[in-house]
Amino acid sequence: MARKKQYNEEEVIEKATALFWKNGYEATTVRMLEKEMGINQFSIYSSFGNKQGVFLESINAYKKRIRSITDKLSKSNNGKEGIKQYFYDFLEFAKEDDKNRGCLVTNTVNEIKEDGDPVIMEQLMDFANDIKQLFVDNLLQEKDNTIEEAARQSNYLMNSLLGLSVSSKVFDQSQLNDTIEFTFLNI
Amino acid sequence: MARKKQYNEEEVIEKATALFWKNGYEATTVRMLEKEMGINQFSIYSSFGNKQGVFLESINAYKKRIRSITDKLSKSNNGKEGIKQYFYDFLEFAKEDDKNRGCLVTNTVNEIKEDGDPVIMEQLMDFANDIKQLFVDNLLQEKDNTIEEAARQSNYLMNSLLGLSVSSKVFDQSQLNDTIEFTFLNI
DNA sequence: ACTAAAACTAAGCGTTTGCTTAGAAATAAA
DNA sequence: TTTATTTCTAAGCAAACGCTTAGTTTTAGT
After folding, report:
1. What are the backbone dihedrals phi and psi of residue A101, each rounded to the nearest 5 degrees, phi first?
2. Fewer CB under 10 Å: which end of chain B, C or N?
């Protein structure tokens, strides 16, 4: 009846994700996507609607990939030690060759700001809140920790993780290790 | 002999700074600058060469403005307590109406990445290192603190400050206060 | 083999980007 | 007042942007 697609949508989105991760949303042009994904602009628009559609699918692909370490955290039951391990896992996850790309979601929050596309913004907020909730869950595994205290600590830890997403692009591994160790000293 | 300039270069750069601070470098177009600065594109290019020239002058204007709080830190002599005050001062400094714009320099580092313009990148790195050095100086005011320990602590504090630059755009004041208080418990 | 539907290629659409330029308006020395 | 010099306005440049479309190729049911 009709011709077959010569590409796999999941595969080309993986490649788009890498581009967005490296360059950000605005700086990634449709011509770059065309080249990296290995398919024509027509195919891009026919499969994903528009550039934003490609990006939203890339965010989904990113979430799926990072689930390997968030799952590890949600299964962890040794309190703050599990979160600390998540910090180290995240640094490894975001590493590409010897460079660190930070977190795709954090990068995007930084880029598109408050007047950015509301659909994308909501996606990003949900993602951050999910991780923060994982922190709270793990912090409550520590004995004598109240919900209020865990909430405060999770704010502190999220701040540190956001900082790490930025720092990892600029500072070297030993500086990052120091940062993580200090972060978990007194909670 | 010749016609007089109808604008003051410092004044129009102040307005350009506000625009870059709010929107970032790439998202700020020359047409937007034209409108905000209140002068024609010809005047912009004749005074500052190109868009990057306007931005570099804006970075200088930003540095001059933030000097009010960095000066306070460099004059401070009560160790980590002075740095903590700097964190609160920074949040106040970056506030615009009820929104927080973060740090112009941090925003730009996040935006232009490693393959960005080397001239801009160097400016940004110098700025970050200057602040980090101020942290070290103040940390050495604490008794029994070694240079190595102060260096490690300054990495941790810079990470927290970078995180705060991001967090302040998303979280509310009480969450930020909790974060700062927790940050200084550890050192 | 024929045909209809989907997927391909490649050219090109209108808009916006950073930047330039032709020409008018203003200024101060002569 | 004339003249030389600079600043102004406004139109326009090539290139790059996101996106579309005309026309060809491939496929599977008849």
Report:
1. -95, 0
2. N
